[in-house]
Amino acid sequence: MPGYPPIADHGLIGDLQTAALVSGGGSVDWMCAPRFDSPSIFAALLDTERGGHFTIAPVDEDTTVRQLYLPDTAVLVTRFLTPRGVGEVVDFMPLGDEPQVAGDRHRLMRILRVVRGTVTFALECRPRFDYGRAPHSLTLGGQGAVFHGPELDVHLQGNIPLDADGHDVRATVTLEQGQRAGILLETRAAGSPEPEPVTVEDFAAEFQATLGFWHAWIRRCSYRGRWQHMVNRSAITLKLLIYAPTGAPIAAPTMGLPEQIGGERNWDYRYTWIRDASLSVRVLIDLGYVDEANAFREWLGRCLRATGAAGGEPLQIMYRIDGDPGLSEEILEHLSGYRDSYPVRSGNAAADQLQLDIYGEFSYALTHSPEVAEPAGYDGWLGFAALLDWLADAWDRPDEGIWETRGGRQDFTFSRVMCWVAFDRGIRLATQYARPADLTRWTAERDAILTQVMRRGWNPDRGAFVQHYGSEVLDASLLLMPLLGFLSPKSTQWLSTLDAIDRELVTDSLVYRYNPEASPDGLRGVEGTFSLCSFLYVHAMARAGRLEQARYAMDKMLTYANHVGLFAEEIGPTGEQLGNFPQAFTHLALITAAIALDEELDRAVRRRPDRA
Known about the structure:
The chain is an alpha+beta fold. The protein has 14 helices and 28 strands.
């Protein structure tokens, strides 16, 4: 379809409360405000006609584009190489003095500069409020433009003269080598006073402050391995996807981007999955970022108290970033979807699913570090112990499983493994800190789960652990079994499972989650390979001692990153990125794979008798 850039043709910028995707063509194609999960004001990715965009690009059509991040930052530079000159648009979102305080005010700064010759830039700003459903009006004055929406105003100002184009604006500006211009887009609550005029000095100061924040943050990263650049980029991406006022990580900043072009597997990922968030936090702990883990622990405690007070399960599988459990799903019928991938869904009906594995993931994450476990204190421990007491009565049930299929509940092997993890980590923590716990009961349940999985999750005909009891279907989620300590990574049964996954789910180092033809998931169509699973495959191969194969798979996976090091959820048959973008799950798995492969490669070097 004309007008839709590839999903991967974007960089991500953000201010730890919301984010924007900027295409290689200089267009802000996606932005929600004032929060990640708010309605969009730019959504050209989901409908080029109705979604809205904010584009700055040269008027010269004969233009070559290059895009990059300034090193170890979330400051994005889009370079335009034209016959008459080279121009750049520098995009970033200032974080302000208190990014942990929620507010309606968010700023996107765009600095235009010419580094050679002369370049004429064209600007178009066409916001579309409430996913393109709400009309807006325009006020154009000497200070700039104000787009008046139903609940939000968008202010546009800078040193570029703006012209009205109906209820939108456009402009052109010609710059010569060494000249600069700036444009500030700012969101505010409807009816708020106009912001103070922005000056050239303001742009320079905010630019330096934003660079300083990201440089200081990445210096805290403890990783010093072979894939430093990609790990740093993935860590910054995970940080960009954490809502600072609550500490809740989201799964991705987008909604509705398809797992199959033209298909119906189009979900809203702008929420906090307990699973994804817990594993993201665990990775950040491994990199030395304890503050983010403690903020998430506090948020999770609030969710536990709120959900528990309402009765039923102690936790939902996902929440809004403020802890609100309401995630009703609706179809936005007026949007055509990315390249006609319909329907476009807002909200997520999977929030009501039963997924027992979530109790294992958050136990795995939050019991990993004394710096996270100790601040929870005695009251925090009592809440955690009560949760395990509940799980002792509740773990042996069918559920919907990690992939949120809509084909009915099963006795999923991975869900049982993660319940084992919950008890195992709880027992370790109670013993380490001498905390009150029903250790006899927890130990009995832990051992019962292991016995059950080994007896019913293992299929001797397949020579592998399978997706759910009584099936022959393989599942890439089980690549986590050795990482979690459930099995030795070199045990006979695990190596046999790894071989089976390699034969059936792996294609040129890319890994499918499962075979939907063998295990119907209640949805039409097919999907691409799942990038999370591809990095889990690298991790499993490394721990199994298959280092040459693991390193080759890792290096091949990195070639599928986009031009600025970002990954979507899936990779299609011809290498295109599919699904919501960028996805936290993929980036956390990249970091985990890099750490494991580094450790195993270093261990192999130390074992060599001829090493220097």
